[in-house]
Amino acid sequence: MTRIIAGAAGGTPLAAVPGSLTRPTTDRVKEALFSRLDAFDVLAGARVLDLYAGSGALGVESGSRGARSVDLVESDAKASAVCQRNADLINGVLGTKTVTVHRSKVEPFLDRAAAAAAWDVVFLDPPYPLEDGTLAAVLQKLAGHLGSGAVVVVERSSRSPEPGWPEGMTRFAEKKYGETRLWFAEPSVPDAISADDLPDVAEG
Description:
The protein has 204 residues and is α/β, with parallel strands linked by helices. It has one domain (27-193): Rossmann fold. Helices cover 29% and strands 25% of the residues. It has helices spanning 27-40, 57-64, 77-94, 106-112, 132-143; strands at residues 47-51, 69-74, 99-103, 119-124, 146-157, 169-177, 180-187. A 7-stranded mixed β-sheet has the order 3-2-1-4-5-7-6, sandwiched between helices. β2 (69-74), α3 (77-94) and β3 (99-103) form a beta-alpha-beta unit. α2 (57-64) packs parallel to α3 (77-94) and α4 (106-112) packs parallel to α5 (132-143). The protein is globular and about 40 Å long. The two termini are 22 Å apart. The model is unreliable at 190-196 (pLDDT under 50).
């Protein structure tokens, strides 16, 4: 059972997408990911974007941990309906509409985003069959919508190549957990998070 790990709604069960439409982030990877984000101190008051959201578990977890706003972007009808159920759940706990669901493909969503729209934490967990060139194009569109000090997290198969980072975005760390690899990137600006700031966590 998928659940919210910590924060205002910690321990609350989440609805899951039926069948094999999505590839949920395991609890082990999710806990490790959020321990790093906590170490970076980027979640409190953050504007969070969860692309290829699936059930919305990563975005909803962010809302529980103090994010100011969360946008869940998912194109599949069944998955977006689950996103909405989980968004309603966390919004009810928080007493405010922190999480918003957008039923849309990722690239059109970013194309429609206002020029001034900027996010502080972005999750991308695209389907494994997504072509590397398509992911690179999404990252290119995303690069213009990052706040100062933003953190971008790409979750892929450990057998997948490193994403093609666009101009204006730099990879600063990567961690492997069994069959999953997390890539961390940031805007290419001075005083951004350094790889030296990463906590020591054993790789699996």
